[in-house]
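Feature request, filed as a ticket because there's no other form

It would be nice if the structure record came with a short human-readable summary line next to the tokens. Right now we just get the raw output. Example of a typical job, pasted below so the devs can see what we mean:
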Amino acid sequence: MRMAVIQKGFKNNIWGFYMKKDFAELNYYEMLNIKPDAAFFEIRHAYKAALQMYQEDSMISHSFFSQEERKQILSFVEKAYLTLINEKERQSYDNELIRQGVLTTIKWKGSPKKPICIFDINRNSGIKSVPKSNNELRKKIAESKSIVGIISQTEISGSDLKKIRNELDVTVGHIAQETKISSYYIKNIEEDNINRLPAAVFLKGFIKAYLKCLCLEPIEDISNKYMSILTHVEKQ
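Raw output as currently delivered:
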């Protein structure tokens, strides 16, 4: 794998950094969306979440990746996991990142707190929601001047998406249940908390799955309008 050299240290605000990378250019920690000091429990949790995301029946995977891309990403994820879960191999890998200036000297965490995962891998989360039919959602969208107005904008923010969701009377819990995206990230998308969003390689897939769940079309066009706002923020 081609190792990308990034600025020294692991920034809290990693959005601009991810915007410029393809998945193959991420290091192993970035592939699993964890910090370099992650405990082994967090590595296992992130790995299971990634596997859940790239299953063929995943709405996120289907919305964003081709079958060939999914297979390639899974091979990267597998290699990242097998390296980081092995103490000796992880230490050797970390030393290489430090040598390249990617990381500073780090100390792995001992007893971790439960991590916040990008994906909700528990299919029986207990969340009860009353799903609306696709035809019902499409009818409400077509009849709503405010929704049509938002969709016609040149850029669409997370708060715009929240307005649409509320008007359609769909809960965050329902979207999380249908897409398997953590409600934590759905809320941060809707609140435009840029620093709390995952890597762009995941985020655009999340947005497409969100739009598909709400029957908002055209999905590609709307998702690009959302991502364009983040691109402007990254350049500031």
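Something like this underneath would help us a lot:
DSSP finds 13 helices and no strands in the chain.
Residues 1-20, 121-129 have pLDDT under 50 and may be disordered.
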